[in-house]
Amino acid sequence: MSTTPNNEKSDKSVPFTTADDAAKIANGSAPSSTAAVDLVNRVADKAHATIDRLATTAAPKAQQLQKSLEDTNELLHERADRLRTTGNEWCDSLRANVREHPLMAVGTAVAVGLLIARLTR
50 phi and psi, to 5 degrees? Predict the structure, then answer.
């Protein structure tokens, strides 16, 4: 957390780690430069530790998510290929039936057309 004291006309932020540090700044009794450096170092150390801890826990989860997405992508591609193959097989089968029985195909087409015409009236 960072804030800028009201009595300073500065764009710089001063990080606080304790309520005592915040009170000292608010009362106008700013810590000495070594105390300020120590404060910044403590904040930086805590930030580094937090980032390291987050990275340690997040990296395996990110790898697991990436693996899951890759598996899902592969599965979807396999299913799309299977559907494409099935569709091509059905079309080939239908073409073969029409070539073997052309009159039955024309009669079926006329019957379906009449049925659709009656249903849409």
Answer: -65, -45
Which residue's structure tokens are 């530790």?
Answer: 49
What is this structure's pTM? 0.45
- Domain edges within the chain: 58-119
Complete DSSP assignment for the chain:
-EE--TT---S--EE-SSHHHHHHHHTT-PPPHHHHHHHHHHHHHHHHHHHHHHHHHHHHHHHHHHHHHHHHHHHHHHHHHHHHHHHHHHHHHHHHHHHH-HHHHHHHHHHHHHHHHHHT-
Quick: pLDDT tens for 18-72.
666 655 655 655 556 788 888 888 999 999 999 988 888 888 899 999 999 999 9
